[in-house]
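Notebook B, p. 112. Complex prediction, attempt 2.
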Amino acid sequence: MTQIAEKRGLSDIVQTAVEKHGATPDAFIPILLEINRENGYIPAEAIRLARKFLHQPEEHVLVSEGQLYGLASFYHMLNTGVVGRHVVQFCESAPCHVQGARDLWKSVQSTLNLKAGETDPQGRFTLKTVSCLGLCGVGPVMVVDEDVYGNVTPDQLPEIFAKYE
Amino acid sequence: MPFYRSHILVSVDPACIDAGAHDVLDALNDELVAQGLIDEVQVLETSRIGDPARFAPDMIVYPENVHYANLSVDDIPYLVEEHFLKGRVVEKLRAQTQVVTDEELGAPKPKEVRIVLRNCGKIDPHNIEEYIAEDGYQALANVLAGMTPEQVIDEVAKSGLRGRGGAGFPAARKWQLCRQVPDNPKYLTCNADEGDPGAFMNRRVLESDPHSVLEGMIIAAYAIGASMGYIYCRAEYPIAVQNLNIAIAQAREFGFLGENIFGTGFSFELEVRMGAGAFVCGEETALIASIEGKRGEPRPRPPFPAVKGVWGKPTNNNNVETYAVVPQILLKGADWYAGMGTEKSKGTKTFAIAGDVVNTGLIEVPFGITLREVVYEVGGGIKDGKKFKAIQTGGPMGGCLVEEHLDLPVDYEALTAAGSMMGSGGMIIMDEETCMVDIARFFMEFTQEESCGKCTPCRVGTRRILDVLEKICAGKGTLADIDNLEMLCEEVIKNSLCGLGQGAPNPVVSTLQHFREEYIAHVVEKRCPARVCKALIRYEITSPACTGCTVCARNCPVEAIRGERRQIHHIDDDTCIRCGICAQVCNFNAISILS
């Protein structure tokens, strides 16, 4: 039962995304971004569904699943694997690096007991690195879901992570 | 129309009415009549002035621009007598504004000239009228009403404006090339995929003054003959995307975008396209591929986008800053703009200053300013009184410059000649405690990760360079590795397809050039002079300073520190993982890092 319910949910997400952005090539990336945002990641099933909606030979829109997977795997912000309930994005760029991110990164990994790209067994956190968020004035910077934390120090970490269940 | 010497605007925001704004209004009118000033001072009602939670009820007096807050009826007679009869501002009733600190921008620092950033933090980006009040869309009106596309291109050519994305190609020549191609429709793209680590000038302009970019694009579209434009903004900037969409909707509503702009028959449409996290999409052919819904992989040029760009049609691509400055050039004239800068680099440039200086954040300075002025005057000097070591300009594909370069004027040619580049405008300043091998390794890690993988020299070459650097940082390098590094860098620079690969080895090349002795210390003496590389350092407790307080031992995650209370402690070198926590927690600076 749950599986069917989940599947229908995904189908809705994909269909809504396609309707919102339109079934044209320049909408492929916005559609995948939206599926990623709504579902947390882009499973193979979503690719299959999206291709079904988008491939319209009579409208001269030709697309394969491989092509869509190619997009999903190329862009860093699109996840092709399962992610946790909360995504921690750690800025790994140079300005943060020279402002203390080097030590902070070690603390983040040990506090969460995760390495880059990993998700904990409880599915609570996924730890990712992210390229420059342009918030270098307040580095080191870390983003949890959509909350931005600047000037982060190792001792603030337990308190920050405790906010996310 | 009667003339009034002063105007009082009283806020009748619901919150202010609640706090007695109507009583204040009545009292004001009564008092002005009583003093015989009612024909000289006009009282008007207005909407919200300041935050009602702090200021209600409040009012503002023009032309003096004095904001009185938290008024009561009892204050009015004194206020009218002092301010309007005697001409003295009543300080005790003035709104106490908090000093708002804008960590990114703040007030202009010495030597700054703000043109691109002039409206940032000053106007409400969600309100097109505030932009219009700052001469916004005036240049567009002038252009459409009285200039031919050729005249616009000529004026921009005369100003000397060069592309701000990094390469510095003359903007007007690019426009002219695209205009000449006998193919339609033509497209305009704005590169807002500001991916260089440490560069966030474009983000600030997009967030705080999106209309300046829109206006510049509409003018460029008119000059080129483009009918459709895309702003390609990276998804890491959600607020910029949001503000751009709001701005586009408002501009369309005001008739600055869409069909028949200003009734001149010129039509132009504009849309935002979001990236999805791929640094290489800042390269123009990759950007175009991404707009078309493909993997953002660069392709060889020619054909240049001016001939075959979006959907295979002629396309003009410029950076955010290039477009944003265009309205000001047309408004104030090419001569005004060309009056700033150096012989070949005209006008101003925004930079993002990061790293070990006192004032980090955004600056806008005329070309020709020296790096020394940037570091010491605008940047306020090195933090904590430490020594300057290097400045990295041009982003991850730029190079490191050193003390001897500090008196160089900042312009496209001078930075390139010194072995770095202008890039989009990130500057990272490093103090004496930075290990240059580690920095080179760090930048390679970035470019290796961001290599799109299409061409072998970049895909494999960056990986191999990184392998060698990691080996050196781990203390396992040899002198032969340094030679190999140089050879690898040369091959990758020579053979890569796009600017990413061609520039990727620059941080290694420039650090090898200026800090070769640091590389040699790593491989020959197995020593990291800046005491950064973990494999080459060890921690030691120095006897006179240690009080035996046990703080370090209690905080050590691997129990490598032993010692009795009030006795000097000792670190077991084999167990120690070089995490540095002991040095952070020690209150007596008793722990030194040796290499």
